[in-house]
Amino acid sequence: MTDSFDYVIVGSGAAGASAARVLADANPSIAIVEEGPRISTDQFEDRALPTFARLYRGMGAQATGGRAPMLVIQGRCLGGSTVVNSAIMRRLPEDVWREWDGVFGIGDAVQYEDVMAASAEIETELHAELTPETIWGGNNGLLSRGAAAAGIVGSPTLRNTQGCRGSARCNLGCPHGAKQSMQLTYLPYAEKRGARLMTGRRVRRVLMRGTRAIGVETASGDVMANEAVLVAASAVQTPGVLSRSGVRSRHLGQHFQGHPGMAIVGLFDAPVRMSDGATQGFEVDALRSESRVKLETLALPPETFFAGLPGIGRRWASLMAEFSHAAVWVLPLRSQGEGEVGIGWRDRRLSFRLDPRDLPNLRRGLRRACEVMFAAGAREVVCPVDGLPDRLKPNELNLIEQSGDDPARYPLALSHLFGTARMSVRAEDGVVGPDFRVHGTDNLYVVDSSVFPTNLGVNPQLTIMAIARMAARRIVA
Amino acid sequence: MNRFDRAVLDALLPSGVNPVLPMGLLESGFERFWSKSSKDLAPNLRLAFRLALFGGAWVAPVLVRRMPPLSRLSPPEREKALTAMERSRIAILRQLVRILKTVAALHYGAHPDVRKALGYRA
Fold first, then answer.
1. DSSP for A392-449?
2. Is B95 in Cβ contact with A408 (below 8 Å)?
């Protein structure tokens, strides 16, 4: 079966849906082709395993290879990672943009003022709001209190939510439809104007006629494009789609970047009940400048809380039993390392190498985060680096600094993925040109975070949406 | 699951070791979970879990200078052996323990009695 549209968008996450919203206003002949399933709000469960199986790429077990594997976290469903993220909206930091401009020369293509203007529009459309104190609950409240006591600046997170009840289930899919993720907002907007959402259809490749993209190939038939194909399949999937479509560049799949991070657990005498409150309702940016980490809360369900705790038997059980008295905070690191997304016969194999500066930065951040946890009143902190005691007391924080530079000792997970089809002015420096067109093609575009030349150091969904919106406007102009 | 696997799972989280969570992993129905729900686990995780069970049964005892399998050891020795594996200088052994605990936690943390005992509203 062959369908024909003016525009075909590959992927329905933050980038694909944002592009669809813009295109739909100008020309409703759009197909949005998504590999994952369409899951409705009433199908979200409060259990991790079925959620991982249905909503996450690799059933939640996608990981980098090598001696120190890291989980690589991504959604795989209609709406992509916006369905399972914590709705945090952060604008592109100006220092990051300056690097894009100064080092990579794309400041004219992606002007800071344009990104800010698009971000502001999106914040309005998706109802970005500061997490109200009424739904902070214990976990977020403790970070607020700890930061104040430690003398560092923190703030409630800006999130795209409407009517959030603080059920701490963002990462399992919001059960109340409060999170304004793409399957509830931009995708229905586009669909109402005539766009077609096709789920459960993995795009194998873009069909090319010479330098012109004419559609995409899926197992259940081709979807033809009269005007353009926009690839927004994520930094992990986009390189494979392009490679199978005949795009050749030594940068394709390279420069894979992200934010490796890990959690610490504070144990308090008074109940914390992190399951009552916003999943990620409070954050501290102050550590970005000193150690390239951001500190933020993260409420976990019992399954993932248990999995991250050290110990066997009695020791493990004693930490599990502290669930209701535990606060969990995470430290995503703005890594200076890079990896690779395999293409060709190494299709989708992931690798990531930390930079030698990363672990010292992470350890500084961990120590500071533990200090904040103690300032908030914790009696002990669990910092699950191999070799450390199960429970750290305030006078034992120097042990963190002695944890060494073996990445296998740190239980890192990689989120927020970038860079595998980066933008460049010259074809020899990247995959995509300043107009978001793949170098050497007429109408094949990449509009997702693959085009970002670096990671951001903050949660990227707003910047991904803003840049996809700018790209779509240029394409349709 | 055979008796070697069961010995590993029992040592990982035995019954009666914590007053708040007295139910052990096997008692919580892990074997039933494995036979019914392991299809929801990623294939790479399923495979790694089988390998981790093997490592727990046949490698962990060696780390505390005892003859394998783990099922030959007394309960305190089993815990000691798995602890040695978790603290091993060999990264892959530590990772296998992480995998054991991840899969066990996915079942145990979703158990209604466990959630009730923790005061987790669900």
1. B-GGGTHHHHTS-S-GGGS--EEEEEE-TT-B-SSGGG-SB-TTSBBTT-SSEEE-SG
2. yes
